[in-house]
Every structure is written in C-alpha cells, then in structure tokens.
Amino acid sequence: MTYPTLAVNVKVTWPYMGQVKPIESNTLLTPPKGVLASSTSFVAVKVLGSNGLGKEDVPVTIAGTGGTYTATTAEDGCATVAVASSGTYTASLNSSGWVDFYGAANPSKTVTASSSSISRLTFNYDRAARLQLSLTTAAGYALPTGLRSITLGNTGLQPSGTQIKDIGTGGSATITTLWPFSDGYTIWAGSCGQSDPAAAGGSRASAVVVPSNGSATTTTELAPLQVNVTTSTGSAISGATVTATALSTTSCVASENPLTLGVTNSSGQLQTSLPAGSWTLKVTGKTAVGAWPITPELVPGAAAVTVGVSAA
Question: I need a labelling partner for 234 at 20 to 30 A (CA). Which of 161, 163, 259, 288 fits?
Fold first, then answer.
C-alpha cells in the first residue's frame, strides 16, 4: 500500500547570524494506516514547470463523482486531495498567463479513483512565453496574400513534434501562448508537411528559445517565386489570380489548399513567395493550356525561381 506523504522542512534563522548556518529539520508525515484501510480515495496532482521541477502555489480543481475540491500545490509541485467516493474525477488547472505544452491555459486530465488508493496525474504547466514573428522574403517579392500559418517544431509536441499556428494574413504576429521549451522552437512558414525545409532538401533555421514569462523576436523566410502568366500565343494575362496547391497536401490547412498567391501585373507577372516544397500553379477561372505547371522543390533562402503558366 502506498500512502500520501507530506514532506515538512523547518528552518530557523535569526538576526545577525553572520556565517552561522540556520538550524534545519526535515521529516515526512503520513496519515494513520487506518485512513487508507477505509473507503477513502485520494487524487494526487503533480505540476512540473519548464525546468522539470515542481511548481509551487498552483491552484488545482478536482471534480467528479464525490464532488468538487480545490487544493494548491506544495513546494514539490504536488497537491493531494481526499475525495468522498471512488469514481471518475477530472483535475484542471486555470492560472492566468500559464499554459501547458500545447498552449492550453486551462488543461484538464481525467483519472479513476479507487477505494483505499491514490490516483496520480501529472501536468506540465508554466508561465507562457511570447514570440514576435515576421515573415520575410527576397527584396522585390511579396508574401502570398493567402498565407496565414506557420509551423512550430519541437520533439516535446507529441505525437508529431509540430504545432500549426494561425498568424493571420498580415505577415507578422505575436504568439502569446507558447510553452517555454528550454531547447526552443524551429519555425517555418506554412502548415503543409512538405513545407518543412528539411523535407524539401534544405535545413530548418536555428531554434528560437522563448523564456518562461518572457519574449523573443524572430523572422521566418519564404522562397521567392516569379510567375509569368500568358495565353497559348504568348500574350500576357494581367489581373490573373494565381494559386498554388501543395504537391503533398498532408496536414495542409484549408487556406493553403489551395493557397492564393496574388494577382499578375500588366505584364502578366507576379513576384511572390511560397513555403518550402513543390507546388502546382493554377490561374483562377482559367483552363490550363496543356497541364498546370509544378514548381521545383523550393527552399527558403535560395535564389528566385521563375515558372511560366499558360492559360486560356
């Protein structure tokens, strides 16, 4: 039988101690054996911060079959509650400005409490980090008008190791609900699996570390692309809306399947940009002359690529 245990540390100090060390005593307290011999059930919650250590003074709510209970974590990050009856209980956290691995401010987990036993749950929970991010591309090239997603990479983001964030179409945003991984985040533009630069023959940018309750600033680069849209006879088509569809649409969000790039100028040209990978280019409301072209593997930071599109 495992019993709930409370670690007690008593430290005595006094004025003008100088180099004298404080008197300190440590002991463990456990309830009488008869407590767990009864029908009492316990739910124990442990809260770990980004450094892997317990977080103190975090409020915990436990609700279920026997009612709703509240507790606060001790110095070791633990809070243990005796519940009135066995059954299913949900433990939740809700501290302002705090998040779990996935940016959830109010994470919850469910456990089944049994008579005369302790049911345990562990949360990773800490003060959120903030990331100020801007999308960039080569001089003279525009960002795709429809792009609104970036991907964060860290092995702690299970099961895929990635998380997609919507930053809007303005080309910059502040993400305020990030878990402060000590090894930081690798970041790339786009949501599609093929947009990972490492999957397109390039390499991910260096990881950006965002501290707990702190912020970091970074830029994420796209690959420059010039699109020339013409008729079958070679005449420029101005005012044409060009879209791009990932060759592999795995994990692509709706706004990137297809992704609107922009509108051609009076010369039938569009100087735009794309996330990494190969893309099929199309013109809205037009029919391809032959087949719609596919870009080569695009890699952020590489020289601009030019692709011709013939439409009718």
Answer: 259
Pick from 86, 107, 92, 82: which is nearest to 62 by CA? 92
Residues 161 and 240 in one domain: no
Q: How many CB atoms lie within 10 A of CB 80?
A: 19
- Could you say which of 110, 126, 142 is where a domain stops? 126
pTM assigned to the model: 0.81
Q: How many domains does the chain have?
A: 3
Q: What is the pLDDT of residues 2-57, one digit of tens each?
A: 455 666 788 888 888 888 888 888 776 666 555 555 568 899 999 999 999 999 99
Rounded to whole angstroms, the Cα distance separating 53 from 76 reads 8
DSSP 253-281: -GGGTTEEEEE--TTSEEEEEE-SB-EEE
* Token pair listed for 21: 């060390």
Rounded distance between C-alpha atoms, residue 213 and residue 207, angstroms = 18
| Domain of residue 165, CATH code | 2.60.40.1120
Range of the structural domain that residue 277 is part of: 223-310
Which two structure tokens, joined as six digits, stand for 51? 């450094």
